[in-house]
Amino acid sequence: MSSVTFRAIGIFSRPRRADITDIVRPLLEWLSKRGIRGIYDTETAASLRDETGGRPRELLAHESDLLLVLGGDGTLLAAAREAAPRGIPILPINLGSLGFLTSFTLASFIRRSKKPLRAISRQVNASC
User: How far is CA 31 from each of CA 27, 35, 68, 72, 113, rounded to the nearest angstrom?
Assistant: First the structure.
């Protein structure tokens, strides 16, 4: 299997989630330390109070090599609609209560984040 390098990871989050700033800011730092550009949707930008950095969701998928979805099943389905035409992988992080479709909780993602992201995304896509 060929090696996958993620240059840009899009963060697609549940709108109006109160703690999204506490999750996204450290995540952006984590990506930056690994030489990966973190970009995010306008909903996430509003939570971060960043009026310049957010991308419309339909453009986010076009600028990303992977979509990291922060939310529940509804957020995952919205992200899938944007990612599917481009065929980019999605790594869903369940921030909701049920999560029938989302693969990881935030805690399990943090534990597994010591693995390269390509290994995690391969595991997620293989289970879908």
Answer: 6, 6, 11, 22, 11
DSSP label of 101: S
**Among 22, 41, 50, 73, the one annotated catalytic:** 73
Stretch 21-46: mean pLDDT = 88
Note the pLDDT of residue 101: 60
Residue 73 is a catalytic residue: yes
Say if strands 104-105 and 37-41 run parallel, antiparallel, or are unpaired.
Answer: unpaired
Classified as helix, coil or strand, 120 is helix
Q: Check if the beta carbon of residue 70 is closer than 8 Å to that of residue 41.
A: no
Domain 8-127 falls in which CATH fold? Rossmann fold (3.40.50)
